[in-house]
Amino acid sequence: MMFNFDKNIEFLNRNNDILTIGELLVDMISADYDENFDSNTYHRFFGGSPANIAINTKRLGVNSSVVSAVGKDGLGKFLINQLEEVQIDTTCIEEVDYATSMVLITKSKSSPKPIFYRGADYHLEYSSKLTEAIKNSKVVHFSCWPLSKAPSRQTIEKCIEVARANKLIICFDPNYHPMLWEKGEDGPEYIKSIIKKVDIVKPSEDDAARLFGKDSHENYIEKFLTLGAQLVILTLGEDGAIVSNGKETVKFETLATEVNDTTGAGDAFWSGFYAGVIEGYTIKEALQLGFAVSAYKLKYTGAVVELPRLERIKEIYSIEGGS
Amino acid sequence: MMFNFDKNIEFLNRNNDILTIGELLVDMISADYDENFDSNTYHRFFGGSPANIAINTKRLGVNSSVVSAVGKDGLGKFLINQLEEVQIDTTCIEEVDYATSMVLITKSKSSPKPIFYRGADYHLEYSSKLTEAIKNSKVVHFSCWPLSKAPSRQTIEKCIEVARANKLIICFDPNYHPMLWEKGEDGPEYIKSIIKKVDIVKPSEDDAARLFGKDSHENYIEKFLTLGAQLVILTLGEDGAIVSNGKETVKFETLATEVNDTTGAGDAFWSGFYAGVIEGYTIKEALQLGFAVSAYKLKYTGAVVELPRLERIKEIYSIEGGS
């Protein structure tokens, strides 16, 4: 496959647009900034990057479905309810005999301190329901999270195989973080073996540094391409992004004007990009829509904000093109 | 060993009075009652039954020390800080590479729904520091919690062995709950094998029913005695307790007049009993002190309340005797 910046992607006719697979979890976030462990009040939030993307894309106006595992408990019910409220298909969410995964985040001016409580999420098992869901979708998306542990790792491997056979676009967020991996395992080496098998990756500079060590932007892009990715979107925070399809490399500027909270900005980018390619925009236009949705999100607090439809985003940020 | 109701326990000369081993964790409790998973605010509390007993006994005026494992994270720091604030010895608290254990409790009028996030607590390993701590103590206390998983199970087994060799009084809370155990394992059978090796047990009626099935109070007591316990304190909530040393069985009435919150009432009972036996009261008097401290705690909200010294409790509840 080759992603031409000035062409749109031709999708097969499928009922569902975006299938996101992986972490669906509760973010438990301290009410106050806390440098000394004295924060006693926490607020519960819907979380998990793929689940955020599913909600965003749905709000932008394309279909999405979430594949994940939650516990048979109140937090699992809360997460499923949140997805159902925006009419996202939850038939591929398994309820398992482990606690719904949670990330406890104590806000800090110096460094935020997450504590990972992983239960249900990595117990996602492959099933024939998943085969059906993949066959019915145009794009499949996942991050490093489910790859960090068995059995969800094997589930993702199987999903990639089935997605490839059924000609989906396979997108991967290489957000490798050592804290999620078993001690002693070479996470970066494993992640590299996965990059070979996917089409689109969107690493941040930090992600790239964790995988390859400190290097130049050009070398990072080259390394992802050499591993086998077809389109590499290297995001640079306020400096925009460098995107390469192996033949052509394009620099994009951020569209952000007002930055209130960066949480979920990456998920918003993915969401705008996905909505764009699904709606028939060219790769270049879809990338601009990614920046536009990200810019919109940055104005508001929270990982998932009330996004308008894609057409409105297009107007606000004066994005050209479209089918 | 034989516990005579009208005699005190002769302890060897040791620096520390009560050594509690096991769960030290965060209780994350919903701010509101919640029947429909919509509670978004949670408050963090110090928790874990043995740790509560350590704080209580310290406040009553005897020495205590806690053996446990917490994570190298903010919640672990919070728990250690709380113990240090009341001058409890924390040198036997290990900081391990797992998240500090947490129990998330969503309050409910129908049934409270705990979700267990176990990380650090069951990774408690035996060490020579622990041998020293046991050799320096008069009483050792633990509950079913650390027995439910390896490696803390083996740590407790070793503690029992060393405590026996060093002539400590070994006290066990047989609060068996299937949710904490691995599926397929016969928890009750294992707990029974532990009861053989301890001196004092304090089951509630529910604990006894979970271990032996529904039966009469007399049969419950007989079963604990037959297994090898030397003193069985069968607590019956507002109906007090039945206590037997195998030769004599005595009925005790509760001293509670005002019940505001039952959380931690059992820990308060243990605490009053321990403070009593350490201070040289007879078994019967110590049991009454247990009821007195429990009654005091019941008036206030929270698992651990600001207890006065034992002498004051004795006055308030007109308990006779003492050394």
How would you characterize this protein structure?
Two copies of one chain form a homodimer. With 323 residues, chain A is of the alpha/beta class. The first copy, chain A, has one domain: Ribokinase (UDP-N-acetylmuramoyl-L-alanine:D-glutamate ligase, 3-Layer(aba) Sandwich), CATH 3.40.1190.20. Chain A contains ten helices and 13 strands. A nine-stranded mixed sheet of chain A has the order 5-4-1-8-9-10-11-12-13, sandwiched between helices. In chain A, strand 12 (241-244) and strand 13 form a beta hairpin. In chain A, helix 1 (49-60) packs across helix 8, helix 8 packs antiparallel against helix 9 and helix 9 (283-298) packs across helix 10 (310-316). The model of chain A has no long low-confidence stretch (mean pLDDT 95). Chain A binds chain B through residues 28, 31, 34, 37-45, 71, 73-75, 77-78, 81, 97, 99-100, 102, 104, 106, 113, 115-117, 119, 183, and chain B through 28, 31, 34, 37-45, 71, 73-75, 77-78, 81, 97, 99-100, 102, 104, 106, 113, 115-117, 119, 183.
